[in-house]
Each structure stands twice: as C-alpha cells, then as structure tokens.
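for the recovery benchmark. tokens below, seq after
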C-alpha cells in the first residue's frame, strides 16, 4: 500500500515505472556517463548488471560475471569506475573479494581486485586532491567484529592500503566537507559507537564518537545553510546531527522514531525542496519519504508491503523528472519510481488528508487520472 500523510502540498507521489528482474537484488547505484544515464545493480545470487536508459526505460547494457552484495560508482580524472563487493565464496563467509572496474569508452573492464574481511560498504571520495576508497569492514577473516576498517589511496591506476581506521562492526561510510575540512563518518553496529574521522592533511584522525547504538547506515545532506548527518540506527531511532562550528563537532539535534528496522536513507531534491527516502527490512512500513520543512523532517508518504526488505535506494534525474530506484526483496526485483510533488487541490475541490492507494501501478495511474491536480495538471 501507499499511504499519503499530512497536507497534500507537503507530500510526494511515487509512480511505479519499471521493475527489473534479479535473482536477489542487494544494491543499486544510478550514475551518468557523458549525457547517458546508467544503473548498476548488485545481484547476490546471479550475475550483477549495468543498465542504460533508452529514453523510456532501462535496458541491459552489460552483464558483470560475479554476484555482489554492494555496488557503487565514482569518477576519477573524468573516467567512470565501479567498485563491487563480491559475494563471499563458499567455505569462508568472512572473506570478501573487492572488484574495481574501469570504463573503456564502451564497457566496464576489470581493473583491480583485492581481498579483505567481511565488507558491508565501500565509499570513494576526494580529500585535498587525493582519491580514497574507504571500506567498512564488519568482521575480520576469522569472524571477529573488533577489526579495523580500511582506507586505500587511488590514483587512477594503483590502489594501495593507506590507513587503518579503529572501528568495530562497521556497516557504512560516507564523507563530507565542512568549511574546507574533510570528514569521514562510519556507522558501527552491534551497540558500538559510530565514529567521525577528520582529515589532518596526512591521515584521518578520530574526531568524535557518536553515542547512537547499532548504526546501520549514514548519509549527509545540506539544509538551512548547515551540514547534517542522518545516522540510521537499525532497530533504534535515527539520529540527526548538525555541524556546530562553535563546538567543532556534530551535535545531536533530534531523532526520528520508527517501528521495525530502518536500514538506510537517501536524500534527493525535488522542485527545489529536500526530501529523504527511508528504507527498512521489517515492520509494516518498508519505505517512507520525508520532506524537510521548518528545520525538521516531516513524513509525507509510506510504501508498505507485507514482507520483504528494501536493501538499497538510489536516485537520478532525467528531463527535470526525478526517479527513485529501490532494490526490493519482496519479489526480488529492482523497482524504478517516478516522483511527483503532490499539488494542493484546485479551489473548491475537497480532498481528504489521508489517502490509501493499492501498491500497484494501475491503481496509482487510476488515482492520478481521476485527480489530475495531484501532479499539478489542470
């Protein structure tokens, strides 16, 4: 079901556009090469793939000969790359092979590979002109959770271990720049404190610990002129932290309570407004979209299914239209949604404050056809 909450003017409608079949979708990342839109999909039980947008939908561009739990895209010196966390081989679930692929003008080719412990996430970023690949290590090769995460330096050709980060049960990583300073944020699970590391010009030093148990994922965003961190707590509340220049740290501002297990957030802009999509793997609501208003995140829409899990969310824009991509374990599919900011009804047209729509494309189309003002149409 899709549930719209609150005022229509503050809500967003998600219209299903495409479903990509996968054996077990575990991750997706939208990215562009030149003027073309692509989508990389990690498949945990089948071959992973890249897709290309043909003007109306995604079509298969390339089959990658490995299963993966996570995939990400980045550019270095204007060259596109993919980095994938390959599925552990049978016999040693704590040993992960990382695969780096480089674009050769027509397809992605294997470029570098290396092995580490059980990895949850990989994140590429630039600090002071140096390229880094940060790897969130959840467990070591012998299964221990008290293990360091890793940072590798990358110059477009060589990939070398640069630094170890003192973390435990690392789940996710992201980076941000604040007033010319570079930070790396690590979400740590299993009741350990999440960490903020600060670049000192030569290495990343521990700057701050965040007292938020069971960190599942972390994203950053800008709102009201400030830099923010959203730390999903898994089975605990999500913490929102804002950079405090006076205290020289990220201070807790508020929390977002939720039922079930919330695993991830994805910020995106729509009609000049900031939204955050939320994904989870248990409870009655698996996806929720929040809008940033008046210094807070306000709920606008829920997507609920009986069972399953949202394992990843990505977004992209084409022709001034915003799309969300979700890997959904309900039917082991990758779903593509077109987003619309819901408009207020015309003067004289009454509408309830809450609408429940059956989670099917035909039903969504029927509702928008009957109420064209939902999408701002006359």
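predicted aa per position
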């Amino acid at each position: 079901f899709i549930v719209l909450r609150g005022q229509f003017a503050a809500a967003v409608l998600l219209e299903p556009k495409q479903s990509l079949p996968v054996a077990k979708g575990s991750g997706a990342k939208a990215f562009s090469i030149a003027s073309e839109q692509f989508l990389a999909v990690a498949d945990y039980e089948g071959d992973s793939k890249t897709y290309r947008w043909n003007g109306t939908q995604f079509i298969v561009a390339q089959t990658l000969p490995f299963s993966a739990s996570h995939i990400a895209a980045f550019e270095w010196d204007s060259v596109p790359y993919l980095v994938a966390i390959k599925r552990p081989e049978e016999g040693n679930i704590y040993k992960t092979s990382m695969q780096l692929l480089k674009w050769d003008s027509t397809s992605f080719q294997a470029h570098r590979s290396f092995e580490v412990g059980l990895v949850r996430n990989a994140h590429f970023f630039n600090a002071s002109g140096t390229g880094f690949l940060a790897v969130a290590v959840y467990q070591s090769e012998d299964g221990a959770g008290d293990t360091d995460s890793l940072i590798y330096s990358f110059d477009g050709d060589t990939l070398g271990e640069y630094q170890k980060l003192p973390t435990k049960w690392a789940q996710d990583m992201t980076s941000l720049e604040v007033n010319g300073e570079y930070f790396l944020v690590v979400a740590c699970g299993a009741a350990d404190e999440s960490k903020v590391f600060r670049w000192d010009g030569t290495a990343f030093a521990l700057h701050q610990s965040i007292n938020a148990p069971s960190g599942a994922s972390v994203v950053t965003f800008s709102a009201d002129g400030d830099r923010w961190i959203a730390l999903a707590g898994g089975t605990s509340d999500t913490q929102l932290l804002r950079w405090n220049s006076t205290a020289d740290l990220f201070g807790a501002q508020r929390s977002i309570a939720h039922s079930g297990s919330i695993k991830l957030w994805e910020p995106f802009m729509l009609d000049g407004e900031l939204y955050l999509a939320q994904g989870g793997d248990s409870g009655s609501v698996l996806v929720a979209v929040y809008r940033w208003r008046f210094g807070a995140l306000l709920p606008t829409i829920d997507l609920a299914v009986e069972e399953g899990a949202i394992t990843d969310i990505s977004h992209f824009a084409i022709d001034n239209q915003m799309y969300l991509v979700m890997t959904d374990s309900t039917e082991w599919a990758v779903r593509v949604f077109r987003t619309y900011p819901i408009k207020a009804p015309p003067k004289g047209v009454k509408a309830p404050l809450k609408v429940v729509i059956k989670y099917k494309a035909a039903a969504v189309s029927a509702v928008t056809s009957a109420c064209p003002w939902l999408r701002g149409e006359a």
